[in-house]
Amino acid sequence: MTDVHTTHPAPGVLSRIFGTGQDGEGHEQVVLCHDRTSGLKAIIAVHSTALGPALGGTRFFPYGTEEEALQDALNLSRGMSYKNALAGLDLGGGKAVIIGDPDKDKNEAMLRAYGRFVESLRGRYITACDVGTYVQDMDVVARETSHVTGRSPEHGGAGDSSILTAFGVFQGMRASARARWGQPTLRGRRVGVSGVGKVGHYLVGHLVADGATVVVTDVSEAAVNRVRAAHPEVEVVADTAALLSSALDVYAPCALGGALTDDTVAVLGAAGTAVVCGAANNQLAHPGVEKDLADRGILYAPDYLVNSGGVIQVADEIEGFNFDRAKNKATKIFDTTLEIFTRAAADGIPPAVAADRLAEKRMREISALRSVLLPAARRS
């Protein structure tokens, strides 16, 4: 291990970290990690430990700049606080990013160096898989830290968290169908899935089994071919633009964040799409998109609500993993999604705002319990 140093963030980033920006809440801790020997450049962002240790995955991605990586870590970690709160977990929100191409740059020394930085936080942050990292990577990270989930079954872990992530998104989509069309099924509906990698291909399986007509796209030919092999009846289109304009009942963004822009929402509205429900994190490109969706009559299932099955799965490892117990918890995403839609309709607000309010309420109420001092507690 060589050093932890400070980069020069883009204007406005420090105001977000310290809570003086527009969101006004800030992050508890941001750690910049650099190990020259292995080439590790990583950022660990702890947004909130109001409900417990911050749990969130590690994204390995070839960011264009360090500033882009920092912005992503801040956005993703904040999203994890809300996701964990709404999922009913006693865990806060955090996220890490490793800068680099996972296909070219990833190596054992780098992952183990990263594990030592995670260990240095002494349990404030618990890591797991995300884009560019896999179960086998977490097994390597775990050689240097005990604060890691998403491990292989051979090491007592849950294995691939994409399984329950997709299952949870499907539950959210069923709830969306119930709210929009009166029945909790996608049978006879045309569903477009953008991104059929880790989560998307499992989601396609649920949709096909439920009787939906499925249309997919992905920048990876291998990912598309895997779906074609498993489900020959699935239609494939060239790109997301073609998908958006293909008369969908439901649009499921399952790749990277920022999928719902002003232009995207306009296309969805013009095409008559009724529901947006997908696995990608941070789907709303900027504040106000959620209102635009509502104004156009498009029902939006908040991303961090419906994609929480994965974090539910890896969080269950902390107790000693039991798949049936984790799946039962993920099944409740259906009920929570319906509750959010009901609250949104009653208050005259978009579902994303209703979800934020419910998550913030839980974080506020549970963190306030710290004012009740325990006899053996020591002030920290």
Automatic annotation (TrEMBL):
NAD(+) binds at residues 195-200. The keyword NAD applies. Pathway: Amino-acid degradation; L-valine degradation. It comes from Kitasatospora cineracea. This is Valine dehydrogenase. It comes from the Bacteria. The active site is at residue 95. It is an enzyme of class 1 (oxidoreductase). Homodimer. It catalyses: L-valine + NAD(+) + H2O = 3-methyl-2-oxobutanoate + NH4(+) + NADH + H(+). Its main location: cytoplasm. InterPro entries: Aminoacid_DH-like_N_sf, Glu/Leu/Phe/Val/Trp_DH, Glu/Leu/Phe/Val/Trp_DH_C, Glu/Leu/Phe/Val/Trp_DH_dimer, Glu/Leu/Phe/Val_DH_AS, Glu/Phe/Leu/Val/Trp_DH_bac/arc, NAD(P)-bd_dom_sf. Its EC number is 1.4.1.23. One of its GO terms (biological process) is L-valine catabolic process. Keywords: Branched-chain amino acid catabolism, NAD, Nucleotide-binding, Oxidoreductase. The keyword Translocase does not apply. Gene3D superfamilies: Leucine Dehydrogenase, chain A, domain 1, NAD(P)-binding Rossmann-like Domain.
